[in-house]
Design goal:
Helices cover 44% and strands 14% of the residues. The chain is of the alpha+beta class.
Length: 81
């Protein structure tokens, strides 16, 4: 579900999935895209797999993460409090 509504499972939407990515990145400031994806799936399960890229896009638009194309590394931009 891209935009949550009153019927949306709160643990299966972009906002929660983005929060999960921020949690993973707060422990390790940078991860390769493959390792981040693996950690994301281990934490949320295979049902959230289609939302992974959308959640990364959402975080990038909010200017919270950087992605380096050459090294395929996703890094946390600012400290999450």
């Amino acid at each position: 579900m891209i935009r949550p509504n009153k019927f949306t499972n709160p643990f299966n939407c972009i906002i929660y999935d983005s929060y999960t990515i921020l949690q993973i990145l707060s422990k390790k400031k940078q991860l390769t895209n493959k390792k981040l994806h693996r950690a994301f799936i281990n934490k949320l399960g295979d049902d959230s797999d289609p939302l992974y890229v959308l959640s990364l896009d959402f975080l990038f638009l909010l200017d919270l993460i950087n992605y380096n194309v050459e090294t395929d590394i996703v890094e946390l931009k600012n400290e999450i409090k």
